[in-house]
Amino acid sequence: MRRRRVLQTLGAAATATAVGVPTASAAGSYTDEYYDGLHYTKYVPSDASGGEPLVVMLHGCSQEPDDFAAATGMNDVAEREGFVVVYPDQSSFSNAFDCWNWYYDANTARGSGEGASIANIALNAASVESLDTDRIYIAGFSAGAGMVPNLMVSYADVFAAGGIHSGWSTTPPTRP
Fold first, then answer.
1. How big is the CA angle at 147 (ends 4 and 93), to the nearest 5 degrees?
2. Catalytic member of 25, 49, 112, 142
3. Residue 117 known to be catalytic
4. What totals of helices (H) and strands (E) does the chain contain, helices first?
5. pTM here?
6. Are the C-beta atoms of 99 and 90 separated by less than 8 Å?
7. What's the rounded mean pLDDT across residues 14-40?
8. DSSP letter at 106?
9. For the residues 12-30, what does the mean pLDDT come to?
10. Are residues 92 and 27 in contact, defined by beta-carbon separation less than 8 angstroms?
11. CA distances from 12 to 60, 73, 105 (A)
């Protein structure tokens, strides 16, 4: 097992360290899925009937969807608040450290690369689960947070809002 610093909850101000936290604590359905050549996990709350919002959660480097879901507790939040969550999984074939390649041009342009795969996963999950396509949100931690601005700009018609936690800045720090 690996130690991972991860987002505690969407919009949280601090991170927590988690080791081997169980992922199936919420009452809904948590499944492995594949779409557009990318693996992801999906949590659907037990009382879902269609029309719910969707939250896409992007993990950081060296993380996997199960660990990210467990450490954030997002499945429990989704069960309580009534939304679906998908956790796309970066492939080790795309990045040896399982980081999202947010800095490559191919991943910043609409219709190509990892950004297109993530947007397609979101749209497919929204279609399959009959979700509210006006309420698709995205959040990321670390390298996942680096990918969020790319998606917000390139897919502004898909993602209604985004959250960045412990992400990257393109602006160098200034000294007083």
1. 70
2. 142
3. no
4. 4, 8
5. 0.81
6. yes
7. 67
8. G
9. 51
10. no
11. 16, 11, 30
pLDDT tens per residue across span 44-101: 999 999 999 999 999 988 889 999 999 899 999 999 999 999 999 987 677 677 687 7
Cite the beta strand spans of the chain per DSSP E: 4-7, 15-18, 29-35, 38-44, 54-58, 84-88, 136-141, 161-165
Q: Tokens 């693996």 map to which residue?
A: 39
Any bridge partners for residue 34, and if so which?
39
Q: Which residue has the tokens 């996942």?
A: 144
Instruction: Output the pLDDT for position 74.
Output: 95
How far is 29 from 12, CA to CA, in rounded Å? 24
Closest CA to 54 of 80, 78, 27, 24: 78
Q: Are strands 136-141 and 84-88 parallel, antiparallel or unpaired?
A: unpaired
Mean pLDDT of the chain: 81
